[in-house]
Amino acid sequence: MNRDQIEGGLRHLKGRGQTALGAVAGRARPQAEGAFNQVVGGAQYAYGRGRRVAEELTHDGAALAGEIEKRGRDAYARGVSAYGEARHRGRTALRRAESHPTETLLAVAGLAFVAGWLLKGRR
Length: 123
Prior knowledge:
Layout: H1 3-25, H2 28-99, H3 101-120
Helix pairs in contact: 1-2
Protein name: General stress protein CsbD
InterPro entries: YjbJ_sf
Organism: Methylobacterium indicum
């Protein structure tokens, strides 16, 4: 509860008391002032409640933004790591292919044959 909720609730209660006392005394002015205080107190209470909800939503939004940032940084770190690993493996494969050209040629020819055989289909 914030200050506006407390003050609004108290003013609403004060207005109810004024309205009741005005009715008992049979006087119109205290009744009208009481009704006014009830309405103003209710509005202030509603404003305070809305402000509290907005503050809670702001806090929740900040927490969600922090979690998103953390997960984004983790995903970026994993991506950088995967890129480094792929680059290392690619360089290793390239060095092996350059140092063993006959094996590389036979492997590529075998893969091409298998791919052609699989893609040929029946005719």
